[in-house]
Amino acid sequence: MEIDELDRRILRELRRDGRLSNTKLAEKVGLSTTPCWNRVRALEEGGLIEGYTALLSQQALGYPDTVIIEVTLDRHDDDIFEKFGQALADLPEVMEAYLLTGEYDYLIKVAVAGTAGYEEFLRRKLYKLPGLRHSRSTFVLRCLKRAHSVEP
Fold it and tell me: Can you tell me the distance from the alpha carbon of 97 to that of 90, in angstroms, rounded to the nearest whole number?
């Protein structure tokens, strides 16, 4: 789908605040409401807008700490990737998980409540997943940038 500068402005505004009313959005990008609504619908139907979501506070939910975990599997066949990936996706503490190239097979971002919460996650959940051979963890000290999409 081809997009122009007006579409980019719409995407930037929605990226900043996905709850903007169509009237406010139209005002911010310099359109009347109907053309703005039509463009937003076209962006949704064209797959540029995948959805809308609420950003939840880890701190307020009782999971103030973030840990980045690198994981190596004991073998590399389709079955183990499928089982491990599905089991990982089912863990509520896992916020993001990526299959990688390089030294480690997965990069996982988890939310925990301190070192005790992290130990519990490791012992009761991560270490019980099928195929795990090795993991290496790093606690995040501070988030410097958090984005949920690229700037259009």
Answer: 11
